[in-house]
Amino acid sequence: MRVLPALALFLILAAPAAAQSDGSAPPAPGVVAGGTVEGVVTNAETGQPVAGAGVVIPALGIGAMTDREGRYAIADVPPGEHAVRAGAFTYHMTDYAVTVAEGGAVRLDAPLAPGAGAGCAAVHPGDHGEADTAP
User: Fold this and answer.
1) Pseudo-torsion of CA 107, 85, 49, 18, nearest 10°?
2) I need a labelling partner for 20 at 20 to 30 A (CA). Which of 14, 64, 77, 133 fits?
3) Which residues, including other chains, have CB under 8 Å from residue 67's CB and lie 6 or more apart?
4) pLDDT, tens digit, for every residue of 92-114?
5) pTM for the structure as a whole
6) Within a domain: residue 39?
7) Residue span of the signal peptide, if any (predicted)?
8) What is the CA radius of gyration of the chain?
9) Structural domain boundaries enclosing 68
């Protein structure tokens, strides 16, 4: 049963991630190089990685999904301060703040508190501040 919500979250995150640049070409003259937000999402109680969690920057509509080891990376993030939201099925959604430097990488490890029912959420690019909460 847990496969279906993870699959839905993956499909929602896959389209914007596929549209992101692979970073192989240097930016054009006058274009500011974006940075990367990367880290590991873990269970706040056990420290174990959370696979299939969503990590997004809602204002930009970009994000990533964690792998089996809970790792994620969001590329091409414009320089500046950004609100980041992380969440997963049966975990409470958590908000963070990061400052990204031009062409730099920022590490954001995101511990999530486990839970069930109301207040637990999945996040995806385009949620613009509102989450899909579990019934």
Assistant:
1) -80
2) 133
3) 51
4) 999 999 999 999 999 999 999 99
5) 0.68
6) yes
7) 1-19
8) 15
9) 3-20+33-133
